[in-house]
Sequence to fold (335 residues):
Amino acid sequence: MRYLFALILCLLASVSGAQDWEDRQRFGPADASRVLRVLSSTDTALFEPLLRSFVAVNADTAIDYLVASTSELDQIFRQTPEAYDVVISSAMDLQFKLANDGFARPLEDFPYPGWAQWRRSLFAFTSEPAAIVINRDAFAGLDIPHTRQDLIRVLRDRPTLFQGRVGTYDVRQSGVGYLFATQDARTSETYWRLMEVMGGLQTQLYCCSGEMIEDVASGRIAVAYNVLASYAVARADLADQIEVIVPSDFQTIMMRTALVSARTPRPAHAQVFVAHLLRQKAAAGGGSATSLPGLDLTRDAAGQSTIPLQPALLTYLDTLKSAGFFKDWTDAVIQ
Fold:
């Protein structure tokens, strides 16, 4: 049995090593008695302070931090849930389905507000709006779009300027992009009008917020829609090139969530990590570790603009529903 267990661990390590990660870094002592494997969609640069603060107070534990896109993360974890201890993602709907499908371990004696958790298995710890990010030089002399109608107007008025220079998530590839798009569509028909206008301008499609932000800053594109505001605000080095706008007509705000794998071989230590994460980020406005905006637990609700952590998140993950949405989105954006 001992040799069989060792063989399984070797096979898991082999599968993990073959994966083409967006990033992979280890934090903590090389001779740590245990290594927590954290699978995440959050860029390492944004999460590194929190990871370092954890290993600083847990000297016998190291962290193997593995980064993948939201959609890839979901697929990877479903295939080998025993290979990871903690999963962190901005795609609330995919995370909710993981918990609903039994992939998350309920945490005992873990008090947390009902609106910020689901059945003690899935825990929200940030509040992050989708934003419009513009290139300051490209918009010099133009009205700054503070609503989606404003954005539609400026794009229609200057088609030559914006042809091929508008960006958004490719919702077929990005889990958080799909989440933002479906929530926008549920809230207002303005979303579809905007998609049609953007599609007519040969919109550039992206997997990730980071790439959109870089391209806006360089001037390759002039404006990006539904970017994670937290990622853009964190780029203080680009403040002279970009402006971050949270639309005033209605906000789409997601909560980044964490879960402990139901098949983790280190349940107690995984729970200690999640507890540290929540203490740092989800406490009366947020904590100091990471530049991600924390969750204010002093409120009795997440707020009207925040996507609720509720079963309604599963609506657009239904096969027929998602197929219909993808068709409508493709017809509008890829013209």
Notes: The chain has twelve helices and 13 strands. The domain at 128-253 is CATH 3.40.190.10 (D-Maltodextrin-Binding Protein; domain 2). The mean pLDDT is 91. Residues 54 and 272 are 9 Å apart (CA to CA).
